[in-house]
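Researcher: I'm preparing a figure for a lab meeting and need a structural model of a single chain. I don't have an experimental structure, so a prediction will have to do for now. The sequence is pasted below. Please return the structure as tokens so I can convert it later.
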Amino acid sequence: MSIIQYLEENEKKNLPLSVDLFKKIREDILTGKLKNSEKLTEGKICGEYNVSRTPVREALRQLEASGLIRNIPNRGAFVIGFTLQDVYDMTVLREQAEITAVKWAIDRITDDELDELDETFEFMQFYTRKNDIAKMININMAFHKMIYNATHNDLLIRSLNLYQLYLRHANPSNYYAPDYLGEVLAEHRDIYSCFASGDPEAGAMAMARHMKNSRRRKFK
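Model: Understood. Here is the structure written out token by token.
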């Protein structure tokens, strides 16, 4: 998927009602709007999200499968929130998975995928110069997702996409503050150059530095 396709896909809104509802409730859980241990009833969800009961039941099933709510017999569904320790632990797990991903991706990336990564890095440079934080958020996610996809390992791809999704919502930060953009670009340049040179070990070290600095920016 090219950067243009990724950004267009990111803007699509025509989702089935149950999927759209699932994503809205998931975001409210991850951002803390819905609190840990808060009870979710079909009636409450229908009223707050202005939907009928049919999509609510499917959304609740998806939330339970995602580990975001717990159904207790004879009591109902309750939110499973994230503590700061949960977020920190997830960040550490993501770091290790990202390092593995970049090593595998450098070994397995196709010529077409490398062209797409090159295009994405060019966009990253352009929007850094323009100081466009909103665009950089999406382009940074696209850059990492392209690395995930280049591993050609479905389990790793799914795991990293979930880590990225949960951490983006559960730990909003000043990661994209204007004074960080140049620093973030330099870290991605180091990673990208390892794809150009075909050096997975150097790529792992560059990704490790990027992840360490990302954690510093998030938890400072």
